[in-house]
Amino acid sequence: MGRLAVGLALLAVVACGDPAPDDAALHQDIATHQAGAEVTFHATLIADPQDAGGHEILLVRSGAGDGLEIDHNTTLARRVPAHNGDQLVVHGQLYLDPGRAGVHCTHAHTSSGCPVPGWIDLGDSRYQ
Question: So what's the pLDDT on residue 16?
């Protein structure tokens, strides 16, 4: 994605608010191998989060039934105090590894490879 496209995407989010969760679009992106797609979706935590070297790993099931691993960088964002069964809304960048889909870039501070800031909502709190 070029700088102009990233800038326009950020402007659209600022002008229109947060992107609405779209579980069907996430499912389609996974099915058509759209690694790098910006995604926003509903998720249910299917296990308590695990720590892994500066990341909090959240295993979730999307509203469309897809299993995903959320790699939430806790060196750039607050830890999500979630537990098995909690409902989340996730915004980040889709990645596809052999045999699994995941989301990273769920933080407001950009880092290499994360062109658009992301977040995780739990209840009335945002973790970015």
Answer: 61
Q: Show the tokens assigned to 128.
A: 């970015």
Among residues 47, 18, 113, the alpha carbon closest in space to that of 70 is found at 47
Residue type, 94: L
Q: How many helical (H) and strand (E) elements, i.e. helices and strands, does the chain have?
A: 2, 8
pLDDT digits (tens, 9 = 90+) for 43-64: 999 999 999 999 999 999 999 9
Cα-Cα-Cα-Cα dihedral sign, residues 63, 52, 56, 47: positive
Q: Is 82 left (phi over 0), alpha (psi -120 to 50) or beta?
A: beta
The answer regarding whether domain 20-127 maps to CATH 2.40.50.140 reads yes
Question: Beta partners for 59?
Answer: 69
**What's the CA gap between 52 and 11, in Å, rounded?**
33
